[in-house]
Design goal:
Chain C: InterPro entries: GvpK. The complex is a heterotrimer. Chain B is an alpha+beta fold. Chain B has 8 helices and 9 strands. In chain B, the strands form 2 sheets. In chain B, strands 1, 2, 3, 4 and 5 form a 5-stranded antiparallel sheet that branches. In chain B, strands 7-8-6-9 form a 4-stranded antiparallel sheet, covered by helices on one side. The interface between A and B is large, with 71 and 101 residues.
């Protein structure tokens, strides 16, 4: 389910309905998120140079650590009770 | 299910409720559940001619195939997310057969349990903040009405052109600074409702809509299911407080962005979860 | 992704690449000019001439772009970790 300006609607999305989720959001999660497991045929996306380069062009997310422009928690953002994680920059991509 | 390979979507805890009979996944086949010692792998049979190492590699370069496969994969994960908290796998995790999948569950059991513990009862919400595209003559985010009106006429002289450029640059700088302040505050506020948060690189590239403007914030939050409504309401309350900015929310997702091992130690090779700080207070 | 090697696509891609570089230079020049304008170190006559030149240059770029059906967003290079070549906004 996709929503703008926080109006996500009541309840959670009906998963079998055709939702208009932007491709970039799906690809970003499936290519750069999710658990990486080495299996017997597993193709690790990052192992394939050409694919990795194309992915870079696609979602601009395959990056080594991009330093956060913001101070880490403790300097700003106030985190009472220690809930809410320290924000971190960039998902650790397989690209290396 | 003969010589087909096994495509694995996600791992979860038993007993996962049966999935809808009409649900199809990658390759058009309905997913199955494979249980092994306290873990369930959700799999589909897929043909080797498409999902063997070499053909798969080739397919991954085809955007249409990639998009179709990704959406089918996400469909299954989303269906799972309505009945459990699945741990989604990265795209294209394929095994030879059922015993290959079971062996994986065996080998990875501890790590998978750790991650499942962390995400249990949570969903992921994605939040993006966009600074609207500048108007054609570069007057900034368009919230300075008088500047926009003034520049609708052509510059009257060379000096006039320079003057407008200077004003436009200043307006743009100011808009960026305000956007940054807003994004930081929003991230801080939202993080308080989340067990964990991730700042992703700003979104760009050919799949980004040209008219979207500039992405200022691209983050993900691991939110307890029961707090989702408050989480979204918080975002809703920012409306009207942020001229020139647009907030986009996606979700609820399975915890794609939070699948690193909570116990990961430093690894010399850039392994998943290495060099990532421990998230501190987990619920 | 596999590039479409139609002759006119190749030409268009090359033009886009060239115009991207030209656009970068144009923006750098403009920035320099505005900085010097702001600092008051130019004479009125210089301001007028520099401004006019930049104005004409921008106009020329727009027409070239449009002739090849290129939008402003098409003139850019993604340098990966370094971000885009030209500012996005």
């Amino acid at each position: 389910m996709s929503a703008s300006d926080g109006h996500a609607g009541p309840g959670f999305a009906e998963p079998f309905a055709r939702r208009e989720i932007a491709l970039v959001d799906v690809l970003d999660r499936l290519l750069a998120g999710g658990v990486v497991i080495t299996g017997d045929i597993t193709l690790r996306i990052a192992d394939v140079d050409l694919v990795r380069i194309d992915l870079k062009a696609l979602i601009s997310a395959v990056n080594a650590q991009v330093p956060s422009p913001w101070p880490t928690a403790g300097e700003g953002g106030g985190d009472p009770g220690g809930r809410g994680a320290e924000p971190e920059r960039a998902i650790e991509r397989e690209a290396s | 299910m003969n010589d087909d390979l096994r495509y694995v979507y996600a791992v979860c805890r038993p007993p996962a409720a049966p999935l809808h009979a009409d649900l199809t996944g990658v390759g058009g086949a309905p997913p199955r559940q494979l249980t092994h010692e306290g873990l369930v792998a959700v799999v589909s049979p897929v043909p080797e001619r498409d999902f063997g190492r070499e053909p798969l590699r080739a397919h991954l370069e085809d955007l249409r195939w990639l998009a179709e496969t990704a959406r089918a994969h996400q469909n299954v994960v989303a269906a799972l997310a309505t009945v459990t908290c699945p741990l989604p796998l990265r795209l294209a995790t394929v095994f030879h057969d059922d015993s290959g999948v079971r062996a994986m569950l065996e080998d990875e059991s501890e790590r998978l349990h750790r991650i499942l513990d962390r995400i249990d009862g949570h969903v992921e919400w994605g939040v993006k903040v966009w600074l609207g595209a500048a108007s054609a003559d570069g007057d900034g985010s368009g919230d300075s009405g008088s500047a926009a009106a003034a520049s609708s006429r052509a510059p009257r002289s060379g000096r006039d052109y320079l003057r407008r450029r200077r004003a436009g640059n200043a307006a743009r700088e100011e808009a960026l600074a305000r956007a940054d302040v807003f994004a930081r505050r929003l991230h801080g506020d939202l993080s308080r409702y989340a067990a964990d948060a991730r700042l992703h690189p700003v979104q760009s590239g050919p799949l980004t809509d040209a008219g979207s403007g500039r992405n200022i914030l691209n983050s993900a939050y691991l939110v307890p299911r029961t707090w989702s409504e408050e989480f979204l309401e918080l975002i809703g309350r920012t409306e009207g407080t942020r001229p020139g900015l647009r907030v986009e929310v996606t979700g609820p997702w399975a915890a794609y962005s939070f699948t690193d091992d909570p116990d990961a130690r430093e690894e010399p090779h850039g392994g998943e979860g290495a060099a990532r700080q421990d998230a501190g207070g987990t619920p | 992704m596999k590039m479409d090697l139609e002759p006119d696509t190749v030409e268009r891609d090359l033009v886009a690449l060239v115009l991207t570089v030209v656009e970068l230079l144009r923006e750098l020049m403009e920035r320099q000019a505005v900085r010097r304008f702001e600092s008051g170190e130019l004479t009125e006559d210089q301001e007028e001439r520099v401004g006019m030149t930049l104005m004409l240059l921008e106009d020329r770029m727009t027409r070239l772009r449009e002739r090849y059906g290129l939008r402003p967003e098409d003139l850019n290079l993604d340098l990966g970790p370094l971000g885009p070549l030209l500012p996005r906004d």
